[in-house]
Fold this sequence. Notes:
Layout: H1 2-13, H2 47-53, H3 59-69, H4 75-103, H5 107-110, H6 112-115, H7 121-154, H8 160-180, H9 182-210, H10 213-217, H11 224-239, H12 258-286, H13 299-303, H14 306-337, H15 344-364, H16 369-397, H17 403-407, H18 423-438, E1 441-442, E2 445-446, H19 453-456, H20 460-474, H21 496-504, E3 537-540, E4 549-552
Amino acid sequence: MPHDSARAAASASEGATPAGAPSRGPVETRGLEPVPDSERTGRVRQLFPTWVAANISVLLLTMGAGLVVFNGLNFWQVLVVAVAAPVVSYGLVGLVSVAGKRGGSPGMALSRAVFGQRGNLFPGTLIWVARWGWETINAVTGAYAVLTVLDLLFGVRRSTPLIVLTLVLFVAATFAVSGLGITALRRCSTWSTYLFGAFSVLVLVYLVAETDWAAVLGEPAGSTAMMIAGIGTVAAGGISWVPSAPDFTRYLPRSASGRAMTGTTVAGAGIVVLPMVLMGAVMAVGTPDLAGAGDPVSFIGKLLPAWLSVPYLLIALIGMVLINSMSMYSAGFTAQTLGVRLPRAWAVSVNAVISLVLGFLLMVVATSFIGSFISFLTLLAVAFSAWIGVFGVDMLRRAAYDGPALMDTTRASAYWYRGGFARSALAAWATALVVGLLFTRVEWFAGPFAGTWPGRNNLGWVASTLVAAVLYAVLPRERTTAKPGAPTATGAPDTPAARKRATEAPGTPALPPTTPGRPPGEARRQPISSSVLPFVSRTKNTTNGMESRAKKV
Length: 553
């Protein structure tokens, strides 16, 4: 059929699975296109190991040590930071993840509905580039873990060829897991959660027994300002996951509880962040140079006995592979939204190569890992926060997404707006990004307002989020632009009759219903509290050319 071939071509141009094709088996083949209800078999509880795995990183130990050494905080203040940071950052992750079960598409594909088909290229490009840095940091940390284990077990000293080899092996493992897709990520996350949890308990028991608690609890308190700055630093890692949050919830049924999704996300992250940051703070009291170590891993071999440090590092290495795999999984979708015409499994190869090159430069050329890491986190939080402010306000206004319009990158798309741009969203995003940078200070850059209270307390990302949200809320809202009779992604005219035929066609996703007086591409608005679509259409075809019958369930 001509329409079927046109639809398949449109899907292929996005690196997607042809409409109606299953996305099952060992490799996930579904790309940007919305997940049909028949494949939404995920469970909210699966988010717990997902966000546990996203935080299995020894970098949290280094950050906890930095709170003591650089911020001057005592144990109780570090405890406040370790509780508040995941609640703030992963609370945002959980809230934005609700968009995934509403629209069934990755986060940066849903972002097209907010910024426009062309306008989405601007925040999409920035977020994609920011992921290069995050994946580079993780690759370097994983390589250092391998080098430390080789040194502890066999006395093998690091060299440039060995650094290159460990980086290649780490990135290759990351590419393999992320290429397999969501099923592999879920299974690996579950097992790594059990293993890392068990060994973390052993490390905690060892620290409790060996730590000079009088010295730890006797540390003087730091300033409230430094505690707030510490919350911002630790929270920055979680904020970087916000645009990716819908990627891991698009297989959840529409009836999934948004409150449960948010709570499970915060719990999964918090159960790792809290003890890891506290452990780093406790270790730093006896070893102050931990916070400024040349690499973020080798100190573990000095502070823990070999029988504990080696298996702990190996489990942490698995966790870091998963963190990078999750990041590359999302980066593959982001690359597709930017026009990379590759299947999802291969789109991640672009980021894999980039992280390999940048990782080599960071390990061989850079003089300070922790300084580069903190600077990167600070800029990363600002870059992502501008998008969060705009997308978050849009979520409050929108109860559903038009699936075909998300995939249609032509002028006929309901999300084309004016010339492909949602100007109010882009104006709010760009303004917020500039404001956030004005209040930001890193090793090699300082905004003109970095000396003010928000700047000194590392709150540039907060300023960026608030400015984006307020501006987008008050600016005039863009209207969808699809017109009756305009061609859609399938090549058929967008008329009521055509939409009815498209809905009844076998193997095609149902198009959103229209409301009188509203453009056909725009989904019917529902109360924000409604998280379940009123009905799902099941089609049954008859033979001999007879008209198909629709049953409402």
